[in-house]
User: What shape does this take?
Amino acid sequence: MKIKVIVTLKSGVLDPQGKAIQQTLNGMGFANVKDVRQGKYFDLDINENNEQKAKHSAEEICKKLLANQVIEDFKII
Amino acid sequence: MNSSVIIFPGSNCDRDMDVALKKFGFKNKMVWHDDDKLPKSDLIVLPGGFSYGDYLRCGSIAGKSKIIQSVIDFANSGGMVLGICNGFQILTETGLLKGVLQQNKNIEFICKNIFVKINNSENKFFENIDKDVLELHIAHNEGNYFCSEDELKSLEDNNQIAAYYCSSDGKVDDKSNPNGAIKNIAGIFNEKKNILGMMPHPERMIDKYLSGEDGSKFFENLIRNLK
Assistant: This one.
């Protein structure tokens, strides 16, 4: 079963890359971009047919490796 | 005194550390990350570099490697562990040290000499050191130390901040903060002060002709304290 995971910096944590992208977009003429937050996206193929079990595994995986919960949040979709 | 330096794929300060430890009298062994047992050691060093290409997050993959459980057990039983640069990042990823090293505030790789002020010398790493401001070298992209307000408070309350970035005369201010680290933090201890993680490289400052000798002071003092 395919599970998608998005890891983002927690709000309030400085994201210098996001800031640089936002400033570049503004410089390119996209003056309406107020903020950019950069994140990571993972496609997990988990050998499990039960969606609940697969998502449970994904949650453990996020907590133990994919996200550093000091500064990052994760979303399983 | 026996020391061990752990080599991960992508470590690049392991040999420098080996040279430095031997120069000041340690009998050093190099240990491969895929081993599961540590040789008998008085000090374990996690060296600088780019373990596993900094994939996912700096230090995150190394923090799950085979040897790490032995390092954690050694540290939890009171053994002395030193993590420099990528080694500091690995220590935070294992949870042995609090917080995290984020990307530098200015999104630049920084490679230069800096000064640090030793904040706590009541531990085996810095006890009896005869200088409180050291000139050391930094070379990193992710050295911007960050932790939650609660964690910062507990670091301060337990005197766990090892060193601050400062000016050459020891002033801790924004101007001397190279990477945006919270409160100018360059290195921290665990609660028991047997684990030290810091971004600056003392092993790069052990030759009066090539660099400077403030790293020599660190190693001379360390081996004296461990004997």
